[in-house]
Write a structure and sequence with these properties.
Layout: E1 4-13, E2 17-27, E3 32-36, H1 43-51, E4 58-63, E5 66-67, E6 78-81, H2 93-103, H3 108-122, H4 137-149, E7 155-159, H5 167-184, E8 187-192, H6 195-201, E9 204-209, E10 212-217, H7 219-224, H8 229-234, E11 241-250, E12 253-260, E13 263-268, H9 271-274, H10 277-280, E14 286-291, E15 296-297, H11 300-305, E16 310-320, E17 324-331, E18 334-341, E19 351-356, E20 362-364
Parallel strand pairs: 3-8, 3-9, 6-7, 7-8
Antiparallel strand pairs: 1-2, 1-4, 4-5, 9-10, 11-12, 11-14, 12-13, 14-20, 15-19, 16-17, 16-19, 17-18
This protein binds adenosine-5'-diphosphate.
Adenosine-5'-diphosphate (ADP) binds near residues 40, 44 and 45.
């Protein structure tokens, strides 16, 4: 059990490749932190610096209150689980799991006790005599986790541990990792490029881009209050709809007007959002706005009740997913996706009305792409 503190952490690889810049965060004991972002944004480098596998170029790293910049990996009391599992092929599952403890000269009885305990947690007691080649991908992943658990580390570091598994197994393992975190009551730092993994497992999520932290927040807050356009569009599937617009003031109401040429649409922002001083500064100017597909409604009652946010739309095509359908729309020349309950009948290839839930609209500065509505 431990806290991890990153103060101004940066990493420059040889050849002047800047991988991470000014990373600041206090990870509390027992948190499940997920670092998420597109490939190359510096997630693994950050994790590897915490592990001690990569030298820190600038800043200070503390585990609990101890400065560990120059402490070798084996003395940091952390365990790392890799994407490729890194199991020894010639050893049995039992030997793989006990290897680290054997090197530390742990007593034989203690090794057996800890391996059996971890195997029980992971439900792999029946596999202890097998070699990795006789295991499925999911089972290998469990062994890799088991090898980390037996060491009873202060911090678990996991680098894309589910990316070699098929989609169904990933979903199961997501839930299992969350349960494992709860039962171990240990600090987890987890790297993934998959925003669904981040949303489902993290107690807090760190979104990174180009080596810079974009936002650190619990999953729901990140989803509801993204600090910039990148976070807004990176988190959430289907992706948030984004469009350029002009902010207008009509009789004391702020409207977003968007579309090409004469084909224009507009929706009124609610007073609490549209009349904020920060938003009023943008009246008469270009902005970018975003709205999630679930916040564009096709139900008749909703549209009737919200005339100021109803727009004419043309249904381009519909993707039926069972409970829900993705409806792809053209509104004032721009493309929008809406997610509606499949029981709502939407005529395809037809001109219809849709309504925006304007409480859920996000408005961004067109230059900085920072939010102006949170
Ligand atoms: P992520 O884990 O988010 O995909 P990484 O941390 O692996 O990103 O990489 C961040 C940046 O650092 C990338 O531009 C990558 O090419 C670069 N990088 C990673 N490892 C090295 C290395 N050993 N030498 C030089 N550049 C590296």
């Amino acid at each position: 059990m431990a806290s991890v503190t990153l103060k101004g952490i940066g990493k420059t690889y040889s050849g002047n490749v800047v991988a991470v810049t000014d990373f600041n965060m206090e990870i509390q004991d027992k948190e499940f932190i997920v670092l998420v972002g597109p490939s190359g944004c510096g997630k693994s480098t950050t994790l590897r610096m915490i592990a001690g596998l990569e030298e820190i170029t600038t800043g200070s790293l503390y585990i609990d209150d101890k400065l560990v910049n120059d402490v070798p990996p084996k003395d940091r009391d952390i365990a790392m689980v890799f994407q490729n599992y890194a199991l020894y092929p010639h050893m049995t599952v039992f030997e793989n799991m006990s290897f680290g403890l054997k090197i530390k000269k742990t007593h034989r009885d203690e090794i057996k006790r800890r391996v059996l305990e971890a195997a029980k947690i992971l439900e792999i007691e029946g596999l202890l005599k097998r070699k990795p080649s006789a295991l499925s991908g999911g089972q290998r992943q469990r062994v890799a986790l088991g090898r980390a658990i037996v060491r009873n580390p202060k911090v678990f570091l996991l680098d894309e541990p589910l990316s070699n598994l098929d989609a169904k197994l990933r979903t199961t393992m997501r839930a299992e990792l969350s349960k494992l975190h709860q039962s171990l009551q240990t600090t987890f730092v987890y790297v993934t490029h998959d925003q669904t993994e981040a949303m489902t497992m993290g107690t807090r999520i760190v979104v990174m881009k180009d080596g810079f932290v974009q936002q650190i927040a619990p999953p729901q807050e990140l989803f509801d209050k993204p600090s910039n356009l990148f976070v807004a569009t990176f988190m959430g599937t289907p992706q948030m709809n984004v469009s350029k617009a002009t902010l207008l003031d009509i009789d004391g109401v702020s409207w977003l007007q968007f579309g090409e040429g004469t084909d224009k649409a507009r929706v009124a922002l609610p007073q609490w959002k549209g009349r904020k001083p920060e938003v009023l500064e943008y009246i008469g100017r270009s902005v970018i706005f975003g709205i999630r597909p679930n916040d564009i409604h096709g139900e008749e009652e909703y549209i009737k009740a919200h005339p100021d946010s109803a727009v004419d739309a043309k249904v381009e095509f519909i993707e039926h997913l069972g409970a829900e359908s993705n409806v792809f729309l053209k509104i004032a020349g721009a493309e929008f996706a809406s997610v509606v309950d499949s029981r709502v009948k939407i005529p395809s290839n037809a001109a219809v009305s849709f309504a925006f839930d304007t409480d859920m609209i996000h408005v961004f500065d067109p230059d900085t792409e920072e939010t102006i509505t949170n």
